Amino acid sequence: MTETIYDRTRILVGDEGIEKLRRARVIVCGCGAVGGYVIEGLVRAGVGKLRVVDKDVFSESNLNRQVLCTTETLGRVKSEVACERARLINPDIDIEGIDEYISADSAERILEGDWDILVDAIDTIGNKAVIDKAALDRGLPVFASMGAAMHFDPSAVRIATLKKTDTCPLASQLRRQMRDVDTKNMICVYSTEPVTAKIEDKDEHGKSVLGSLSTIPAIFGMTLASLVIRRITGC
Questions:
Q1: How far apart are alpha carbons 206 and 215 in whole angstroms?
Q2: CATH number of the structural domain spanning residue 124
Q3: The domain containing residue 102 runs over which residues?
Q4: What residue spans of 52-106 are helical by DSSP H?
């Protein structure tokens, strides 16, 4: 019998689960440290349709933690590279890349169409709030990454709705920004490990440069992917 990409997943989720994954339509905002692993997990699980959104390009500092970044992809648009890698893994996937900043002006276009789930793997608070609010207003469940940088301890990674997160500074800021939004359908991956390292550098745009390992963002990303797979299949 010919082997397929679905064989090992089918053992866990059954034929019905495989069909649900094939029919699933997921938007992933952010193709970097966390988002790259989300995309990797969803593609290998057999999710049939993806839209991936990211305006950034790969730079050498991304090599330590971003699965889509290699010496061959430096300088290339992240969403474009994500689409190419997805098709190398599963040529049957329907995947679209959007090379655009997430903002109030672009949110509606990013969400345009018939989608099942939004994954927020963005690291900028204002952009997160915009796309999460817009998705929730459309009735889309949101699976969101909180701050994966500045952490060492994998055992401190937690899952909760936004209102039940604690310790994470990014989650705290996002709760304030979305205090008037019903976030019961928003599941977050976050860390309860206190941030003790100092933030000393800023990039050319004045944004803080945060220290990050290769490990914790990968755990965040694969955890989000697993949550989405379970939501789709009902397992």
A1: 26
A2: 3.40.50.720
A3: 12-233
A4: 78-89
